[in-house]
Design goal:
The complex is a heterodimer of chains A (about 350) and B (about 160). Chain A has about 350 residues and is α+β, with helices and mostly antiparallel strands. Chain A is built from eleven helices and twelve strands. Chain A is about 30% helix and about 20% strand. In chain A, a hairpin with a 2-residue loop joins strand 4 and strand 5. By secondary structure, chain B is α+β, with helices and mostly antiparallel strands. Chain B folds into two domains: about 80 residues, Beta-grasp domain (Ubiquitin-like (UB roll)), CATH 3.10.20; about 70 residues, [2Fe-2S]-binding domain (DNA polymerase, domain 1), CATH 1.10.150. In chain B, about 35% of the residues lie in helices and about 15% in strands. Chain B has six helices and five strands. In chain B, helix 3 crosses helix 6. The longest helix of chain B has 14 residues. In chain B, about 50% of the residues are buried. Classes of the chains: A alpha+beta (about 350), B alpha+beta (about 160). At the A-B interface, helix 2 and helix 6 of A face strand 4 of B.
Chain lengths: ~350, ~160
């Protein structure tokens, strides 16, 4: 894929205000965090910023802390730190499990929470070199007019492939966003829209500052993903499940999916399972629910129907396993699926 | 635009003029003349360019040189001062963990990062630490054996 990195100017603001000012001053600037997604995209001519604003030195974006009844994770926190952090292990271990599945260890040293949540969508017709895309007549997401995945349609079907988003969604997480007008908090689900060409509901001059995870007493959660190879790979389908068990029945069930469409999303209709046990019939109902709501397209090397079935199978397995584990006494030291405790500062 | 980059490379402080667009890989190979770090895919997919940045493994092809300001960078050359191989390098040699050798510097630096954190890693920990590195000839069995041999030889 080798191509010379295009020219750009690198600026390194020390505060959030400076970073936002730099962005407002240059419409062609991009924020640079870990760079593991943006720099390869630049080398392939997919994005051509004139200025990169390095947000790695801004104190407000760093750190993980308990803040009242929630965990606040700075957007510039690296995935390696998320994997190893004691507060995350105690209050939101599913985030560490999901982080551990992202790419390889070298990527996770650099890659950040904010970057993974704001990951650009991917497609076999898009993540290619400039000469490859030109030979194919370009595509709707970049320089072209046709989506090769669905040529008769009018939208881009590139798939969102971040692993943290579904894990954070089943924890009912929110994001803190800073912009020229000040700060706002939005539910993580509201950060995304179903358009591969513009997948984020984030203004040009806005920046994700932190992820907020509310206390989730009694819930256990985990994340599973399917991919072509066991590491350095994006999900064909990724599923996060959080559930609460009361006796022999479900007291709460949340499922979120990634990799199967242009946005990660919370599965609708899982509340219907509350009050039921997890038997074959319940798993069959969940399987149908997933297969109905996912919308994989031909944007990866594998056929869409495979990803649909894999998403449903991963959901069934996770729900079955977590429901069984929820009946067990808590694991000592809090493993990846240990019940999440109340937050105490 | 070029500016002065100051860092500690293999234990020595250096100052060089580098452009904003230079990656750490460009800097190591073209400016510092350290060609032990290999350019494989140049897109963050193969691990051949793995170096240590403040003891953590990173991909030099995905790291802008200027972001290494004030940090410690270590390459394969830094493991063998005066040409004397480290225990880990000797283990790769003795256990045939290297064949064509192209992925080897990256494999060794990723393993070095692991062994600094964990002097007695399990097979699973070794596999996880090397999961970002591809080898296209010898396969992974001998490489994992090499890392185990080096760990076992720790005094």
């Amino acid at each position: 894929m080798t191509a010379a990195m295009p020219g750009f100017r690198l600026v390194t603001p020390r505060s959030l205000a400076e970073a936002l000012a730099a962005r407002a001053a240059d419409p062609l600037a991009r924020f640079l965090a870990g760079g593991t997604d943006l720099l390869p995209a630049m080398a392939r001519g997919l994005v051509e910023p004139e200025t990169l604003i390095d947000i790695g030195m801004i104190a407000e974006l760093a750190g993980i802390a308990v803040d009242g009844d929630r965990l606040r994770i700075g957007a510039a926190t690296t995935l390696a730190r998320l994997q190893a952090d004691a507060l995350v292990a105690r209050h939101a271990p599913v985030l560490a499990s999901a982080a551990a599945t992202v790419a390889g260890p070298q990527h996770r040293t650099a890659a950040t929470v904010g970057g993974n949540l704001c990951l650009d969508t991917r497609c076999v017709f898009y993540n290619q070199s400039q000469w490859w895309r030109r030979a194919n007549g370009f595509c709707l997401k970049r320089e072209g007019t046709v989506c090769h995945v669905a040529p008769t349609g009018t939208r881009c079907h590139a798939a969102f492939s971040g692993d943290l988003a579904p894990a954070a969604m089943v924890l009912d997480a929110s994001v803190e966003i800073a912009g020229p007008g000040g700060r706002r908090i939005a539910k993580l689900c509201e950060l995304y829209r179903d358009d591969g060409a513009a997948p984020l509901c984030l203004g040009d001059e806005e920046l994700l500052v932190a992820l907020h995870v509310p206390a989730a007493s009694g819930w256990i959660a985990d994340y599973a993903k399917s991919r072509v190879r066991g590491a350095i790979d994006f999900p064909l389908a990724g599923v996060a499940v959080a559930l609460r068990r009361s006796g022999d029945t479900l007291a709460g069930l949340r499922v979120a999916l990634t990799g199967t469409g242009s946005r990660p999303f919370r599965l609708a209709g899982t509340d219907a399972e509350i009050g039921h046990g997890v038997d074959d019939a319940a798993l069959e109902r969940l399987d149908k629910l997933v297969q109905k709501q996912v919308s994989p397209m031909r944007s990866t090397m594998t056929p869409a129907h495979y990803r649909r079935r894999v998403a449903a199978a991963l959901t069934r397995r996770l729900v079955r396993r977590l429901f069984a584990e929820a009946a067990q006494p808590p694991m000592r030291g809090g493993g990846a699926t240990a019940p999440q405790s109340e937050m105490k500062p | 635009m070029k500016s002065i980059l100051r860092l500690v490379l293999n234990g020595r402080t250096r100052e060089d003029a580098v452009s904003d667009r230079s990656t750490l890989l460009d800097y190591l190979r073209a400016v510092a003349g350290l060609t032990g770090t290999k350019q494989g895919c140049d897109g963050g997919e193969c691990g051949a360019c793995t170096v240590l940045l403040d003891d953590a493994p990173v991909l030099a092809c995905l790291t802008l040189a200027r972001r290494c300001e004030g940090k410690r960078v270590e390459t394969i050359e830094g493991l063998a001062p005066g040409g004397r191989l480290s225990r880990l390098q000797r283990a790769f040699h003795e256990r045939l963990g290297t064949q064509c050798g192209f992925c080897t510097p990256g494999m060794i630096m990723a393993s070095e990062a692991l062994l600094r954190r964990n002097r007695n890693p399990s097979d699973a920990a070794i596999r996880d630490a090397l999961s970002g590195n591809l080898c296209r000839c010898t396969g992974y069995v001998k490489i994992i054996e090499s890392v185990k041999t080096s760990a076992a030889a720790e005094p």
